[in-house]
Amino acid sequence: MNSNVQIQPAAAPAWPMLRTLGGIAMISGLLVVLVYLFTAPIIAEKQRILTEKAVFRVLPGAVSKQDFVITEAGGLAPAGEGATGERVYAAYDADGQLKGAAFTGAGAGYADLVHVMFAYDPGCQCIIGSKVLKSNETPGFGDKLDLDPEFLKNFKALDARLNADGTALANAIVTVKHGSKTEPWQIDAITGATISSNAMGRAANSAAQRAVPAIQRDLATLSDTH
Amino acid sequence: MAELPNTQETLTADTFIRGLWEENPVFVMLLGMCPVLAVSNSTLNALSMGLASTFVLVGSGALVSLLRNWIPKQVRIASYIVIIATFVTVVDYGIQAISLELYAALGAFIQLIVVNCIILGRAEAYASKQRLLPTIVNSLGTGLGFTLALLSLGTVRELLGNGSILGIPLFSDNFQGWVIMILPPGGFFVLGAWLLFFNWLRLRKERQATEQAGVTANAV
Lengths: 226, 220
Fold this sequence. Notes:
- The complex is a heterodimer.
- By secondary structure, chain A is α+β, with helices and mostly antiparallel strands.
- Chain A has helices at residues 2-7, 14-58, 144-147, 149-152, 194-217, 219-225; strands spanning 64-70, 76-78, 87-92, 98-108, 113-121, 126-134, 158-159, 174-176, 186-188.
- In chain A, the strands form two sheets. Chain A has a seven-stranded antiparallel sheet. Chain A has a two-stranded parallel sheet with strand order 8-9.
- In chain A, β3 and β4 (98-108) form a beta hairpin.
- Chain B is mainly alpha-helical.
- Chain B has helices at 13-20, 33-38, 43-66, 76-98, 100-106, 117-127, 132-162, 184-219, and strands spanning 164-165, 168-169.
Protein backbone atom coordinates (compact mmCIF):
# COMPACT_ATOMS: atom_id res chain seq x y z
CA MET A 1 0.00 0.00 0.00
CA ASN A 2 2.70 2.32 1.06
CA SER A 3 4.79 1.72 -2.06
CA ASN A 4 1.72 2.40 -4.17
CA VAL A 5 1.34 5.82 -2.63
CA GLN A 6 5.00 6.63 -3.22
CA ILE A 7 4.88 5.72 -6.94
CA GLN A 8 2.13 8.23 -7.45
CA PRO A 9 3.78 11.62 -7.15
CA ALA A 10 1.71 14.53 -5.96
CA ALA A 11 -0.38 15.02 -9.09
CA ALA A 12 0.70 18.20 -10.82
CA PRO A 13 -2.42 20.33 -10.69
CA ALA A 14 -2.78 21.11 -14.40
CA TRP A 15 -5.81 23.31 -14.18
CA PRO A 16 -4.56 25.60 -11.37
CA MET A 17 -1.22 25.98 -13.18
CA LEU A 18 -2.93 26.88 -16.45
CA ARG A 19 -5.32 29.21 -14.68
CA THR A 20 -2.51 30.95 -12.81
CA LEU A 21 -0.17 31.42 -15.77
CA GLY A 22 -3.02 32.46 -18.08
CA GLY A 23 -4.43 34.85 -15.51
CA ILE A 24 -1.06 36.44 -14.74
CA ALA A 25 -0.30 36.79 -18.44
CA MET A 26 -3.65 38.55 -18.93
CA ILE A 27 -3.10 40.94 -16.03
CA SER A 28 0.41 41.66 -17.34
CA GLY A 29 -0.79 42.23 -20.87
CA LEU A 30 -3.50 44.58 -19.72
CA LEU A 31 -1.11 46.59 -17.56
CA VAL A 32 1.53 46.89 -20.29
CA VAL A 33 -1.02 47.94 -22.92
CA LEU A 34 -2.54 50.56 -20.61
CA VAL A 35 0.86 52.06 -19.80
CA TYR A 36 1.87 51.94 -23.46
CA LEU A 37 -1.28 53.74 -24.61
CA PHE A 38 -0.76 56.37 -21.95
CA THR A 39 2.97 56.99 -22.54
CA ALA A 40 3.27 56.52 -26.35
CA PRO A 41 2.10 60.04 -27.29
CA ILE A 42 4.25 61.61 -24.56
CA ILE A 43 7.33 59.72 -25.75
CA ALA A 44 6.69 60.63 -29.41
CA GLU A 45 6.34 64.30 -28.47
CA LYS A 46 9.59 64.22 -26.43
CA GLN A 47 11.37 62.57 -29.33
CA ARG A 48 10.07 65.25 -31.71
CA ILE A 49 11.23 68.08 -29.43
CA LEU A 50 14.63 66.43 -29.00
CA THR A 51 15.13 66.13 -32.78
CA GLU A 52 13.92 69.68 -33.35
CA LYS A 53 16.34 71.01 -30.74
CA ALA A 54 19.22 69.13 -32.37
CA VAL A 55 18.31 70.42 -35.85
CA PHE A 56 18.09 74.03 -34.65
CA ARG A 57 21.39 73.62 -32.82
CA VAL A 58 23.32 72.38 -35.89
CA LEU A 59 21.63 74.96 -38.13
CA PRO A 60 21.62 78.18 -36.08
CA GLY A 61 19.05 80.70 -37.24
CA ALA A 62 16.51 78.06 -38.24
CA VAL A 63 13.06 78.47 -36.69
CA SER A 64 11.05 75.71 -38.33
CA LYS A 65 11.70 72.33 -39.83
CA GLN A 66 10.07 69.85 -42.14
CA ASP A 67 10.73 66.09 -42.21
CA PHE A 68 11.50 64.17 -45.38
CA VAL A 69 12.37 60.54 -45.98
CA ILE A 70 14.83 59.22 -48.53
CA THR A 71 12.79 57.20 -51.02
CA GLU A 72 13.92 53.96 -52.61
CA ALA A 73 14.42 55.80 -55.89
CA GLY A 74 17.03 57.96 -54.14
CA GLY A 75 14.95 61.11 -53.87
CA LEU A 76 13.10 62.83 -51.05
CA ALA A 77 9.44 62.62 -50.10
CA PRO A 78 7.66 64.49 -47.31
CA ALA A 79 7.46 62.26 -44.25
CA GLY A 80 3.83 61.59 -43.50
CA GLU A 81 2.41 59.94 -40.40
CA GLY A 82 4.23 56.67 -39.74
CA ALA A 83 6.60 57.05 -42.71
CA THR A 84 9.63 54.81 -42.49
CA GLY A 85 13.07 55.26 -43.94
CA GLU A 86 16.02 57.49 -43.27
CA ARG A 87 15.06 61.03 -42.44
CA VAL A 88 16.33 64.31 -43.78
CA TYR A 89 15.26 67.43 -41.90
CA ALA A 90 14.93 70.61 -43.90
CA ALA A 91 15.29 73.73 -41.75
CA TYR A 92 13.97 77.18 -42.61
CA ASP A 93 14.67 80.65 -41.22
CA ALA A 94 12.06 83.22 -40.18
CA ASP A 95 11.47 84.28 -43.81
CA GLY A 96 10.79 80.70 -44.87
CA GLN A 97 14.07 80.44 -46.76
CA LEU A 98 15.85 77.07 -46.73
CA LYS A 99 18.62 77.32 -44.16
CA GLY A 100 20.04 73.88 -44.78
CA ALA A 101 19.32 70.21 -44.25
CA ALA A 102 20.20 67.93 -41.38
CA PHE A 103 20.60 64.16 -41.32
CA THR A 104 21.89 61.62 -38.84
CA GLY A 105 24.56 58.97 -39.12
CA ALA A 106 26.24 56.41 -36.90
CA GLY A 107 29.74 55.00 -36.72
CA ALA A 108 31.27 52.37 -34.45
CA GLY A 109 33.26 54.05 -31.71
CA TYR A 110 35.26 52.75 -28.75
CA ALA A 111 32.28 51.64 -26.67
CA ASP A 112 29.26 51.56 -28.95
CA LEU A 113 27.84 53.28 -32.03
CA VAL A 114 28.26 57.05 -31.96
CA HIS A 115 25.11 58.71 -33.31
CA VAL A 116 25.66 62.13 -34.80
CA MET A 117 23.51 64.75 -36.51
CA PHE A 118 25.13 66.68 -39.35
CA ALA A 119 24.06 69.95 -40.95
CA TYR A 120 24.42 70.27 -44.71
CA ASP A 121 24.44 73.46 -46.74
CA PRO A 122 23.26 72.82 -50.33
CA GLY A 123 24.82 76.14 -51.42
CA CYS A 124 28.43 75.29 -50.61
CA GLN A 125 27.76 71.54 -50.85
CA CYS A 126 29.44 71.00 -47.54
CA ILE A 127 28.74 69.86 -43.99
CA ILE A 128 28.55 72.92 -41.77
CA GLY A 129 27.83 71.53 -38.31
CA SER A 130 27.66 68.46 -36.12
CA LYS A 131 26.16 67.36 -32.84
CA VAL A 132 26.61 64.04 -31.08
CA LEU A 133 23.15 62.67 -30.28
CA LYS A 134 24.18 59.55 -28.42
CA SER A 135 27.52 58.11 -27.43
CA ASN A 136 29.00 55.96 -24.69
CA GLU A 137 32.55 57.05 -25.38
CA THR A 138 35.00 57.39 -22.50
CA PRO A 139 34.27 60.57 -20.54
CA GLY A 140 37.11 63.05 -20.95
CA PHE A 141 38.21 61.59 -24.28
CA GLY A 142 35.26 60.66 -26.46
CA ASP A 143 33.10 63.55 -25.34
CA LYS A 144 35.55 65.94 -26.98
CA LEU A 145 33.71 65.10 -30.22
CA ASP A 146 31.08 67.61 -29.21
CA LEU A 147 33.20 70.07 -27.22
CA ASP A 148 36.76 70.37 -28.57
CA PRO A 149 36.80 73.64 -30.58
CA GLU A 150 39.78 72.47 -32.67
CA PHE A 151 37.91 69.34 -33.70
CA LEU A 152 34.66 71.16 -34.37
CA LYS A 153 36.48 73.37 -36.90
CA ASN A 154 36.54 70.26 -39.12
CA PHE A 155 32.79 70.58 -39.49
CA LYS A 156 32.67 74.27 -40.38
CA ALA A 157 32.99 73.53 -44.11
CA LEU A 158 33.59 69.84 -44.63
CA ASP A 159 33.55 69.21 -48.36
CA ALA A 160 30.67 66.93 -49.47
CA ARG A 161 30.48 67.65 -53.21
CA LEU A 162 28.87 65.06 -55.47
CA ASN A 163 30.52 63.25 -58.34
CA ALA A 164 29.58 63.97 -61.95
CA ASP A 165 26.59 61.55 -61.92
CA GLY A 166 25.28 62.95 -58.65
CA THR A 167 25.04 59.45 -57.17
CA ALA A 168 27.76 59.59 -54.51
CA LEU A 169 30.28 61.96 -52.94
CA ALA A 170 33.13 63.00 -55.21
CA ASN A 171 35.52 62.38 -52.32
CA ALA A 172 34.68 60.06 -49.44
CA ILE A 173 34.91 61.81 -46.08
CA VAL A 174 37.74 60.31 -44.04
CA THR A 175 39.37 60.92 -40.68
CA VAL A 176 43.12 61.42 -40.87
CA LYS A 177 45.81 61.41 -38.18
CA HIS A 178 46.04 64.58 -36.12
CA GLY A 179 47.89 67.32 -37.99
CA SER A 180 47.88 65.63 -41.40
CA LYS A 181 44.70 67.17 -42.85
CA THR A 182 45.39 68.53 -46.33
CA GLU A 183 42.07 68.28 -48.19
CA PRO A 184 38.72 69.87 -47.32
CA TRP A 185 37.00 66.46 -47.16
CA GLN A 186 39.31 65.20 -44.44
CA ILE A 187 38.69 65.31 -40.70
CA ASP A 188 41.63 66.04 -38.43
CA ALA A 189 41.49 63.48 -35.58
CA ILE A 190 41.74 64.38 -31.90
CA THR A 191 45.00 63.18 -30.36
CA GLY A 192 44.21 60.44 -27.84
CA ALA A 193 40.69 59.91 -29.16
CA THR A 194 41.47 58.44 -32.57
CA ILE A 195 38.84 55.71 -32.43
CA SER A 196 36.09 58.18 -31.55
CA SER A 197 37.30 60.56 -34.27
CA ASN A 198 37.23 57.72 -36.79
CA ALA A 199 33.68 56.89 -35.73
CA MET A 200 32.71 60.47 -36.43
CA GLY A 201 34.32 60.30 -39.91
CA ARG A 202 32.56 57.05 -40.75
CA ALA A 203 29.24 58.41 -39.50
CA ALA A 204 29.65 61.54 -41.64
CA ASN A 205 30.67 59.58 -44.73
CA SER A 206 27.97 56.91 -44.60
CA ALA A 207 25.23 59.43 -43.84
CA ALA A 208 26.36 61.92 -46.49
CA GLN A 209 26.75 59.23 -49.15
CA ARG A 210 23.05 58.42 -48.74
CA ALA A 211 21.53 61.78 -47.93
CA VAL A 212 23.44 64.28 -50.06
CA PRO A 213 22.57 62.78 -53.49
CA ALA A 214 18.90 62.74 -52.46
CA ILE A 215 19.01 66.33 -51.17
CA GLN A 216 20.70 67.64 -54.31
CA ARG A 217 18.30 65.73 -56.58
CA ASP A 218 15.18 67.06 -54.89
CA LEU A 219 16.50 70.42 -53.75
CA ALA A 220 13.53 72.14 -55.37
CA THR A 221 11.11 70.09 -53.23
CA LEU A 222 13.00 71.09 -50.09
CA SER A 223 12.91 74.79 -50.92
CA ASP A 224 9.32 74.85 -52.19
CA THR A 225 7.50 72.80 -49.63
CA HIS A 226 7.54 75.50 -47.06
CA MET B 1 -1.37 24.72 -3.88
CA ALA B 2 1.63 25.88 -1.91
CA GLU B 3 0.92 25.51 1.77
CA LEU B 4 1.22 28.68 3.72
CA PRO B 5 3.88 28.48 6.37
CA ASN B 6 2.85 29.79 9.71
CA THR B 7 5.34 32.62 9.80
CA GLN B 8 3.21 35.64 9.07
CA GLU B 9 5.14 38.68 10.10
CA THR B 10 3.43 41.41 12.06
CA LEU B 11 4.12 44.84 10.69
CA THR B 12 6.76 46.65 12.75
CA ALA B 13 9.30 49.38 12.10
CA ASP B 14 11.84 46.61 11.66
CA THR B 15 9.96 45.30 8.60
CA PHE B 16 10.99 48.51 6.88
CA ILE B 17 14.37 49.30 8.45
CA ARG B 18 15.81 45.81 7.96
CA GLY B 19 16.18 46.34 4.20
CA LEU B 20 17.88 49.68 4.73
CA TRP B 21 20.61 48.50 7.05
CA GLU B 22 20.79 44.98 8.54
CA GLU B 23 19.79 43.28 5.31
CA ASN B 24 20.98 45.95 2.90
CA PRO B 25 20.84 44.21 -0.48
CA VAL B 26 24.15 45.63 -1.67
CA PHE B 27 26.41 46.09 1.34
CA VAL B 28 25.27 43.09 3.35
CA MET B 29 23.77 40.57 0.92
CA LEU B 30 25.96 41.57 -2.07
CA LEU B 31 23.04 41.17 -4.47
CA GLY B 32 22.36 43.08 -7.67
CA MET B 33 26.03 43.94 -8.18
CA CYS B 34 25.67 44.36 -11.94
CA PRO B 35 23.56 47.55 -11.95
CA VAL B 36 25.37 48.76 -8.82
CA LEU B 37 28.70 48.80 -10.61
CA ALA B 38 27.41 49.82 -14.02
CA VAL B 39 25.06 52.75 -13.49
CA SER B 40 26.48 54.32 -10.35
CA ASN B 41 28.72 56.62 -12.41
CA SER B 42 26.66 59.69 -11.58
CA THR B 43 24.29 60.69 -8.80
CA LEU B 44 21.34 61.12 -11.14
CA ASN B 45 21.82 57.71 -12.79
CA ALA B 46 22.18 56.06 -9.39
CA LEU B 47 19.08 57.74 -8.03
CA SER B 48 16.90 56.92 -11.03
CA MET B 49 18.11 53.33 -11.19
CA GLY B 50 17.43 52.92 -7.46
CA LEU B 51 13.94 54.39 -7.67
CA ALA B 52 13.10 52.35 -10.78
CA SER B 53 14.16 49.16 -9.00
CA THR B 54 12.20 50.20 -5.89
CA PHE B 55 9.07 50.64 -8.00
CA VAL B 56 9.50 47.19 -9.55
CA LEU B 57 10.18 45.67 -6.11
CA VAL B 58 7.08 47.17 -4.53
CA GLY B 59 4.81 46.53 -7.52
CA SER B 60 5.84 42.95 -8.13
CA GLY B 61 5.98 42.21 -4.40
CA ALA B 62 2.43 43.47 -3.94
CA LEU B 63 1.07 41.43 -6.85
CA VAL B 64 2.92 38.27 -5.78
CA SER B 65 1.62 38.72 -2.24
CA LEU B 66 -1.95 39.18 -3.47
CA LEU B 67 -1.77 36.10 -5.70
CA ARG B 68 0.22 33.97 -3.23
CA ASN B 69 -2.66 31.60 -2.50
CA TRP B 70 -3.37 31.02 -6.19
CA ILE B 71 0.14 30.32 -7.47
CA PRO B 72 0.96 26.56 -7.48
CA LYS B 73 4.55 26.08 -6.39
CA GLN B 74 5.50 24.29 -9.62
CA VAL B 75 5.00 27.43 -11.66
CA ARG B 76 5.88 30.02 -9.05
CA ILE B 77 9.21 31.14 -10.58
CA ALA B 78 7.64 31.51 -14.03
CA SER B 79 4.79 33.52 -12.50
CA TYR B 80 7.18 35.79 -10.56
CA ILE B 81 9.28 36.46 -13.65
CA VAL B 82 6.22 37.42 -15.73
CA ILE B 83 5.01 39.73 -12.96
CA ILE B 84 8.47 41.31 -12.56
CA ALA B 85 8.85 41.72 -16.33
CA THR B 86 5.50 43.51 -16.46
CA PHE B 87 6.57 46.10 -13.93
CA VAL B 88 9.95 46.51 -15.64
CA THR B 89 8.16 47.26 -18.92
CA VAL B 90 6.00 49.81 -17.11
CA VAL B 91 9.13 51.49 -15.68
CA ASP B 92 10.79 51.35 -19.09
CA TYR B 93 7.97 53.32 -20.73
CA GLY B 94 7.73 55.59 -17.70
CA ILE B 95 11.37 56.65 -17.84
CA GLN B 96 11.13 57.27 -21.59
CA ALA B 97 8.15 59.50 -20.95
CA ILE B 98 10.00 61.38 -18.19
CA SER B 99 13.29 61.95 -20.02
CA LEU B 100 14.80 60.43 -23.14
CA GLU B 101 18.28 61.61 -22.11
CA LEU B 102 18.01 59.74 -18.83
CA TYR B 103 16.73 56.70 -20.71
CA ALA B 104 19.77 56.82 -23.00
CA ALA B 105 22.13 57.19 -20.02
CA LEU B 106 20.70 54.16 -18.22
CA GLY B 107 20.82 52.08 -21.41
CA ALA B 108 20.05 48.39 -21.16
CA PHE B 109 20.12 48.40 -17.36
CA ILE B 110 16.45 49.33 -17.08
CA GLN B 111 15.42 46.19 -18.97
CA LEU B 112 17.95 44.20 -16.97
CA ILE B 113 16.06 44.93 -13.73
CA VAL B 114 14.13 41.78 -14.71
CA VAL B 115 17.11 39.63 -13.80
CA ASN B 116 18.05 41.58 -10.66
CA CYS B 117 18.24 38.87 -7.99
CA ILE B 118 17.12 41.26 -5.24
CA ILE B 119 13.65 41.36 -6.77
CA LEU B 120 13.22 37.65 -7.46
CA GLY B 121 14.76 36.99 -4.04
CA ARG B 122 12.21 39.20 -2.28
CA ALA B 123 9.35 37.61 -4.23
CA GLU B 124 10.44 34.09 -3.30
CA ALA B 125 11.61 34.70 0.26
CA TYR B 126 9.11 37.27 1.45
CA ALA B 127 6.22 38.31 -0.79
CA SER B 128 5.09 34.75 -1.52
CA LYS B 129 4.59 34.09 2.22
CA GLN B 130 3.47 37.39 3.71
CA ARG B 131 0.38 39.54 3.68
CA LEU B 132 0.09 42.56 1.38
CA LEU B 133 0.93 45.38 3.78
CA PRO B 134 4.11 43.94 5.33
CA THR B 135 5.23 43.00 1.81
CA ILE B 136 4.83 46.54 0.52
CA VAL B 137 6.62 47.99 3.54
CA ASN B 138 9.43 45.44 3.38
CA SER B 139 9.89 45.88 -0.39
CA LEU B 140 9.98 49.64 0.06
CA GLY B 141 12.69 49.27 2.71
CA THR B 142 14.76 46.93 0.54
CA GLY B 143 14.32 49.20 -2.48
CA LEU B 144 15.37 52.27 -0.56
CA GLY B 145 18.32 50.34 0.86
CA PHE B 146 19.33 49.55 -2.71
CA THR B 147 18.85 53.20 -3.71
CA LEU B 148 20.92 54.32 -0.73
CA ALA B 149 23.74 51.96 -1.72
CA LEU B 150 23.65 53.14 -5.34
CA LEU B 151 23.67 56.74 -4.18
CA SER B 152 26.63 56.23 -1.87
CA LEU B 153 28.58 54.93 -4.87
CA GLY B 154 27.16 57.42 -7.35
CA THR B 155 27.88 60.57 -5.34
CA VAL B 156 31.46 59.52 -4.55
CA ARG B 157 32.16 58.56 -8.16
CA GLU B 158 30.65 61.71 -9.64
CA LEU B 159 32.40 63.91 -7.07
CA LEU B 160 35.84 62.39 -7.68
CA GLY B 161 35.45 61.79 -11.40
CA ASN B 162 33.68 64.94 -12.45
CA GLY B 163 33.90 67.30 -9.47
CA SER B 164 30.14 67.68 -9.30
CA ILE B 165 27.03 66.35 -7.59
CA LEU B 166 23.83 66.04 -9.65
CA GLY B 167 25.66 67.91 -12.40
CA ILE B 168 26.33 70.96 -10.21
CA PRO B 169 30.09 71.64 -10.15
CA LEU B 170 31.43 71.94 -6.60
CA PHE B 171 35.06 72.86 -7.27
CA SER B 172 36.74 75.58 -9.30
CA ASP B 173 37.50 75.06 -12.98
CA ASN B 174 41.02 74.02 -12.00
CA PHE B 175 39.71 70.70 -10.70
CA GLN B 176 40.94 67.92 -12.94
CA GLY B 177 38.39 65.08 -12.84
CA TRP B 178 39.67 61.67 -11.81
CA VAL B 179 38.25 60.04 -14.92
CA ILE B 180 38.83 56.44 -13.84
CA MET B 181 36.20 56.93 -11.13
CA ILE B 182 33.49 57.31 -13.81
CA LEU B 183 34.83 54.33 -15.75
CA PRO B 184 33.99 50.73 -14.75
CA PRO B 185 37.13 50.24 -12.54
CA GLY B 186 35.99 53.20 -10.42
CA GLY B 187 32.84 51.24 -9.52
CA PHE B 188 34.93 48.40 -8.12
CA PHE B 189 37.23 50.78 -6.20
CA VAL B 190 34.41 52.67 -4.55
CA LEU B 191 32.35 49.54 -3.79
CA GLY B 192 35.45 47.94 -2.26
CA ALA B 193 36.12 51.02 -0.13
CA TRP B 194 32.53 51.09 1.17
CA LEU B 195 32.55 47.37 1.99
CA LEU B 196 35.86 47.84 3.81
CA PHE B 197 34.37 50.69 5.81
CA PHE B 198 31.20 48.81 6.76
CA ASN B 199 33.11 45.70 7.74
CA TRP B 200 35.49 47.77 9.86
CA LEU B 201 32.47 49.33 11.59
CA ARG B 202 30.95 45.92 12.23
CA LEU B 203 34.20 44.43 13.59
CA ARG B 204 34.74 47.41 15.85
CA LYS B 205 31.23 47.06 17.23
CA GLU B 206 31.75 43.34 17.86
CA ARG B 207 35.09 43.94 19.58
CA GLN B 208 33.56 46.57 21.81
CA ALA B 209 30.74 44.17 22.63
CA THR B 210 33.15 41.36 23.65
CA GLU B 211 35.28 43.77 25.69
CA GLN B 212 32.15 45.01 27.39
CA ALA B 213 31.14 41.43 28.13
CA GLY B 214 34.65 40.69 29.49
CA VAL B 215 34.52 43.71 31.79
CA THR B 216 31.12 42.70 33.11
CA ALA B 217 32.26 39.10 33.64
CA ASN B 218 35.38 40.23 35.53
CA ALA B 219 33.37 42.58 37.67
CA VAL B 220 31.14 39.70 38.65
